[in-house]
Amino acid sequence: MDSASRRQKIEAMLADEPNDPELRYMLAMEYVSGGDDAEAVRCFRELIAVAPNYPPAYHQAGRALQRLGQIAEARDVLTQGIPIAQKKGDQHAAGEMAELLQSME
């Protein structure tokens, strides 16, 4: 299955479940896999709006923004995501985001 058809299937499922954070994350990651970081960031922002307590969205949005050269925005997203991950008890995600943030300094 190519990425376009995977993306289409995810989009069809999202039409039925628009607030499903996993589906939104999967869609954003399809764009990452396809090399479309700008569209991935758009999807991650939508995911954060729907599920603000979903740490992977912040981490992957920060990575995509970094690849786009939008370092200030990447730092902002990571700075927001670290305490969310910590509050959820996800020290692994918090640590990865902190490392990525530190690598941008």
Report on this model:
It contains 6 helices and no strands. It starts with a helix and ends with a helix. The protein is globular, with a radius of gyration of 14 Å. By secondary structure, it is mostly helical. The chain has a single domain, classed as Tetratricopeptide repeat domain (Serine Threonine Protein Phosphatase 5, Tetratricopeptide repeat), CATH 1.25.40.10.
Annotation, overall tally of beta strands: 0
CATH fold category name? Serine Threonine Protein Phosphatase 5, Tetratricopeptide repeat
- Helical segment count: 6
Helix content: over 70%
Order of helices and strands: HHHHHH
Radius of gyration: 14 Å
Shape: globular
Question: What's the helix and strand layout?
Answer:
Layout: H1 3-16, H2 21-33, H3 37-50, H4 55-67, H5 71-87, H6 91-103
Name a few traits of the molecule.
single chain, 105 residues, mainly alpha, Serine Threonine Protein Phosphatase 5, Tetratricopeptide repeat, 6 helices, globular
Quickly describe the structure.
This protein is mainly α and 105 residues long. Helices cover 80% and strands 0% of the residues.
